[in-house]
Specification:
Layout: E1 2-3, E2 28-33, E3 46-51, E4 56-57, E5 60-64, E6 71-76, E7 81-82, H1 90-99, H2 120-124, E8 131-132, E9 138-139, H3 142-151, H4 161-183, H5 209-235, H6 247-254, H7 258-264, H8 272-279, E10 284-288, E11 293-297, H9 298-305, H10 335-362, E12 364-365, H11 371-408, E13 414-415, H12 433-438, H13 442-462, E14 465-478, E15 482-486, H14 517-528, E16 540-542, E17 557-573, E18 580-585, E19 590-598, E20 604-610, E21 631-638, E22 640-641, H15 647-654, E23 657-664, E24 675-676, E25 682-700, E26 711-717, H16 728-738, H17 755-764, H18 779-800, H19 802-805, E27 806-808, E28 817-830, H20 832-854, H21 868-875, H22 892-902, E29 905-912, E30 919-925, E31 930-931, H23 937-941
Helix pairs in contact: 3-4, 6-21, 10-20, 11-13, 13-20, 14-17, 14-18, 17-18
Transmembrane segments: 210-232, 335-357, 442-465, 834-854, 866-890
Keywords: Membrane, Transmembrane, Transmembrane helix
Pfam families: DUF3433 (PF11915)
Length: 946
């Protein structure tokens, strides 16, 4: 029992205003009692309290979520002060809590309830009595239901006066806070500015300390080495005028040293080991005498400066080969190296493809929970692999740069700038790309591009893997608590619109109360975004997978394929005539309707309904309240059969509803419209709910609320085996809830005056049906929005009454249902752009590697030209070196100009040495050199790009 102080309009059954002084007008009385098990039991003690609220204001620092506006942290910085009377009318709030209504209807975009929620539906689901006071003469107050709903404790706990007091205190705080929310809106004439803070959550890059220290150490070493190199470069004595990076530059340094040339000219066909054996004990020096720069033998140079006579080295006979016994090429171009090289790229491409396919849907499991190990495997090792590929291409690039001038000489008709003066060694391998393209050395250009792509590959590999948290499915077994079968229902039992009590007996969803819960929940969902009840969406109710009160999901989501239940309306427009009459009758203006409906068997059934008093305007304390100007009214009828109707006829009427929309251009002042309605002032539709069942795949949280749109929904007409008795009973009872209406009235605004029209308006965000300034709605205006609102309300009604409507399984014999448990899990994914880049580069690597092998330099050298001695031995006996005499002091441009003036052609092959008359193999001017014959069948068949 709850008894407040204020009751000026007499809406409350009990009040304290006649027993307590006005100075105690905030006091209320609350009582709670356990009933006797039988009449002979002694009287139970009553737990009763008198309470009075105090209202205060206090300065705080509140942190509020910018999206939901919900405070999540409050720090008190001031003392409590009495709430200003100019800010909030506390007696008005207390009167509303005591009597449920202030007497005047507030018109607006509000739920068209004529009073505050009475919470009788909540109380009816408990073992608490709906009656109150001595001998149960009154109706339990709304504050009782609110206090119990807020505290949510077993009923026995409220026998403790402290628990009872706290429950009402919590209810008062909730009501006051909700009312204050409307008071403190943003519609103020004056405002005070305060200083606040905006706290934004941002993501940051976290550095791994171990790797930071390693990188810092390497950077330190590189910095020291760079400084040392710079110092040595600036302080070291220099003798060179230009970079000796071409064959011509080496020729220039030795062209005037005939003793050196004579000493080396017989080594043209020697291997590197033989050259080392011949020259290994000799010492040489780079000298600059002011006019020439050259390489001289150190001992001979000292003898020359001492005017000693040197022996004629050309007169000495050497036992040196005159032909290349075993031509060589770099081992990097051999088959046993190329196969693993190409296989590496193909293997990497295949592995990445396999990982990408496996990770595409649900990712890969993390390799470790340790962040260091994760960084190693996901970032550093892939980057290291890509980084190690670059030196391989640089090595091939360097070898091609070294051999390309000699390759050009194979034609024995090469110009100097494309052969002996071709400079590929003074640039980093990656920067040779454009120079190689200009020279049409496409293989070399391709290798340069591969070296450049290695940097892009390292970037792609470093961003290849990323982590994301996704929902992972794990198989599980669930035990649905309810059978997909409706309990036996008496469809005529349910709430009665406008009355606190409906039927006097219980059946199905109706256990007492006014049947308002589905409207409150739907309004909270549509206007505030509050989630729908468990197992419910906007169109269907889904068979529960578990009991919300006893679930053991540990906060995880669950999913399964389950049964679905819903309803839709099949509506037709009705025409005024012999089979349909509607009017506003008598002085009391009672809306009535008579309609003839054709049953499923083809029988004509007459149904009718007379509604309650139709108001001339909004509810008000002022008598005769009416509206002027264009006005509208909405009528809702659940139908009853005529007297002595058969059960079949009663079922037809029970399963039908009639809805009407009225227009009056003159309003209800001074007298509201009466008499029969017609097509000029009214539009009516006749609707029959049709029950639907099906299957759907759902995903819910631990409370049973859907977390995403249902999938694979299949719907069909409900089969009879879903119901324990005639399905029309479920339809009839649901109609009493969904098409409930208080006394309708005229209005000259565009706000709905009943529940179903209110939700029609919000389902399509349009007031077309209730706007008096617009004409009568057409059937097309009505059908779609009406069906959308009805399906939502029916699904909610099933969801909140599932335990009363569906047969529960026996606890010991619950059937099982295969489903899945959904847990958030951090998984490893591959970036699609980075994967594509990596795959393209790796495939390009494989193709270019094969091309390099097919277009590799020929096997014609006695040794690799990797040293000055091996290069000098190629031309020491030729006449070509004589063209470079006197050019050692020239810079690069001067030497190139000199060679253009000489305008000679050069080649690599066999020629007669000018000093000893022997046959040599090396570099000589054309036409004194003979083209080298192809040594293999493959070389004879394949032309090199060079």
């Amino acid at each position: 029992m709850y008894v407040g102080y204020w009751n000026p309009l007499g809406f409350s059954d009990y009040s304290l205003d006649e027993f307590c002084p006005i100075t105690s007008n905030s006091t209320f009385y609350a009582a709670f009692e356990r009933n006797k098990a039988k009449d002979s039991d002694p009287v139970q003690n009553v737990t009763a309290v008198f309470c009075w609220p105090s209202y205060y204001q206090q300065r705080v620092i509140a942190a509020v979520d910018a999206v939901s506006l919900e405070p999540f942290k409050v720090d008190i910085v001031g003392e409590k002060e009495p709430l200003s009377k100019d800010l909030f009318n506390t007696p008005r709030l207390e009167e509303l809590m005591a009597s449920n209504s202030l007497g005047d209807e507030v018109r607006g975009d509000l739920l068209p309830s004529k009073s505050t929620p009475d919470y009788l539906d909540f109380i009816a689901r408990t073992n608490l009595s709906l009656s109150s006071g001595p001998n149960g003469a009154g109706i339990v107050a709304a504050m009782v239901g609110l206090a119990l709903a807020v505290s949510d404790r077993p009923l026995e706990d409220y026998l403790d006066w402290k628990v009872l007091s706290k429950s009402y205190a919590d209810a008062y705080r909730l009501m006051f806070a909700r009312a204050m929310r409307d008071v403190l809106d943003d519609n103020f004439r004056t405002t005070d500015e305060v200083t606040g803070q905006i706290v934004a959550t941002t993501e940051a890059v976290v550095l791994e300390p171990v790797f930071v220290y390693i990188v810092e150490s390497f950077l330190g070493v590189v910095s020291v080495a760079t400084i040392a190199l710079l110092y040595l470069s600036l302080t070291r004595k220099k003798h060179l005028r230009s970079n000796p990076s071409t064959i011509a530059a080496v020729m220039a340094m030795v062209a005037e040293n005939q003793p050196l040339l004579s000493d080396v000219e017989g080594l043209d066909c020697c291997t590197m080991e033989e050259i080392k054996k011949h020259l290994g004990d000799k010492r040489y020096k780079l000298v600059d005498d002011g006019s020439t720069i050259g390489i001289v033998e150190l001992d001979a140079y000292q003898d020359i400066t001492g005017n000693a006579l040197l022996p004629d080295l050309r007169a000495q006979r050497r036992d040196t080969p005159s032909d290349i016994a075993k031509p060589v090429r770099p081992i990097e171009f051999r088959l046993w190296v190329v196969v693993p090289f190409v296989s590496l790229f193909i293997t990497l491409a295949i592995c990445l493809s396999v990982l990408f396919v496996k990770a595409r849907m649900q990712g890969l499991p993390l390799p470790s929970s340790n962040s260091i190990v994760q960084n190693l495997l996901e970032n550093y090792i892939p980057t290291a692999i890509a980084t190690l590929i670059e030196p391989m291409w640089i090595l091939i690039n360097r070898l091609l740069c070294m051999l390309q001038p000699i390759e050009e000489l194979q034609s024995c008709n090469a110009r100097a700038k494309k052969s002996i003066d071709l400079d590929y060694s003074s640039l980093p391998p990656q920067l040779v790309f454009f120079k190689a393209l200009r020279s049409k050395h496409f293989v070399l250009a391709a290798v340069c591009a591969m070296a450049l792509l290695a940097n892009l590959l390292a970037i792609a590999f470093s961003g290849l893997f990323n982590q994301a948290t996704i929902d992972m499915r794990h198989p599980t077994v669930m035990k649905p608590p309810f059978d997909f079968k409706v309990v036996p229902i008496n469809g005529s039992i349910g709430p009665i619109g406008g009355l606190t009590f409906g039927a006097l007996s219980a059946s199905g969803a109706y256990q007492g109360g006014s049947g308002m819960d589905q409207f409150l929940l739907a309004d909270s969902y549509l206007k505030k975004g509050i989630p729908l009840p468990a197992w419910t969406d906007e169109t269907m109710f889904y068979q529960p997978l578990f009991l919300e009160e006893a679930n053991n999901t540990n906060g995880h989501q669950l999913g399964a394929r389950t049964r679905a239940f819903g309803a839709k309306l099949e509506c037709t427009a009705v025409e005024f005539g012999n089979e349909f009459h509607a009017g506003l009758l008598g002085d009391d203006i009672l809306p009535s309707v008579n309609i003839t409906i054709t049953s499923a068997t083809g029988k004509a059934v007459k149904c009718s309904r007379i509604g309650v008093y139709m108001r001339a305007g909004p509810i008000s304390n002022v008598l005769g309240n009416c509206v002027t100007g264009p006005s509208a009214a909405e009528l809702i009828f659940t139908l009853v059969p005529t007297a002595n109707a058969t059960q079949e006829e009663a079922a037809v009427c029970m399963g039908s509803v009639v809805l009407g929309w009225l227009r009056d251009p003159n309003g209800s002042c001074p007298k509201a419209m009466t008499g029969m309605l017609n097509e000029q002032n009214a539009t009516f539709v006749h609707c029959r709910p049709k029950l639907m069942t099906g299957f759907a795949t759902i995903q819910v949280d631990s409370s049973g609320r859907l977390q995403q749109d249902v999938k694979d929904l299949t719907v069909e007409d409900a089969a009879d085996d879903v119901f324990s008795n005639d399905p029309i009973n479920l339809v009839g009872q649901s109609n009493e809830y969904i098409f409930s209406a208080d006394s309708q009235g005229w209005h000259n605004d565009s706000f709905a005056d009943d529940f179903i029209n209110y939700f029609i308006t919000h389902s399509v965000n349009s007031s077309r049906l209730v706007d008096p300034k617009q004409g009568l709605p057409s059937f097309d205006d009505i059908e779609g929005p009406l069906n959308k609102a009805y399906s939502l309300l029916f699904a909610i009604w099933l969801g909140i009454n599932k335990d009363k409507l569906f047969i529960p399984y026996e606890t010991t014999g619950l059937p099982t249902l295969d489903g899945w448990r959904i847990e958030p899990e951090t998984r490893l994914f591959m970036s699609t752009p980075m994967f594509i880049i990596s795959e393209v580069i790796l495939c390009t690597y494989a193709i270019v590697a094969i091309m390099v092998y097919m277009r590799r330099p020929g096997q014609y050298l006695a040794r690799m030209p990797t040293s000055i001695a091996s290069v000098v031995a190629l031309f020491a006996a030729s006449a070509a070196v004589l063209d470079m005499a006197g050019t050692s002091y020239l810079d690069k441009k001067g030497r190139a100009h000199h060679l253009e003036e000489v305008d000679a052609r050069y080649g690599y092959g066999s020629y007669i040495g000018g000093g000893d008359g022997r046959v040599h193999i090396g570099i000589e001017k054309s036409p004194f050199v003979r083209v080298r014959s192809k040594t293999t069948w493959f070389e004879k068949k394949v032309n090199s790009f060079r």
